[in-house]
Amino acid sequence: MNSRIFTGLGVTLALLFGGCVTGNQVWPTGTLAPVDEPVARATVRIESRPSGALILVDGRVVGHAPITVTLPVTRHGFFPDRATLRARFEAADETYGPVGVSANFGPMDKMPATVVFTPHTFWPVRR
Q1: Where along the chain do its domains lie?
Q2: Mean pLDDT, range 22-46, rounded to an integer
Q3: Partner of 48 for a Cys bridge, out of 37, 53, 91, 109, CB 3.0 to 4.6 A?
Q4: Hey, which residues does 61 pair with through a beta bridge?
């Protein structure tokens, strides 16, 4: 009976401390799934309310909203790396200054069909 307890305890400890293995790939510590390489490009429509906000993708100016941009995606439709979409709204009163809103996406985020910015927030519209 003692050997069954020790065997069960040994198997349990091996499973707990063994890590996640898929085929010959060991997943990095702290990740939920392997990160895919970018294999395609998808379009994202960026809108702003009010329209006309200056749009930046990873710090690069791409134009004024509404605009459609093309970004890399994985085969499952996720972002392959971190991406930042930013809308900059010009203020009517110069003492107030411009207002910027950022949307940060990572490898665990699915590429939205549309991102809508307002001066206070943003929301992604899923595919």
Answers
A1: 40-125
A2: 67
A3: 53
A4: 56
Instruction: Give bridge partners of residue 42 from the DSSP assignment.
Output: 71
> Residue 98, by phi and psi: left (phi above 0), alpha (psi -120 to 50) or beta?
beta
**Tokens 């499952």 belong to which residue?**
76
Q: Which two tokens stand for residue 36?
A: 């895919």
Assign 114 to helix, strand or coil. Answer: strand
Confirm if 52 and 87 have CB atoms less than 8 A apart.
Answer: no
Dihedral in degrees, nearest 10, Cα atoms 99, 100, 101, 107: 180
Dist CA 66 CA 54 (whole Å): 9
- Tell me the pLDDT tens digit for each residue of 88-110: 998 766 656 688 999 999 988 99
Tokens representing residue 124 in the block: 């992604």
Residue with tokens 């063994």: 18
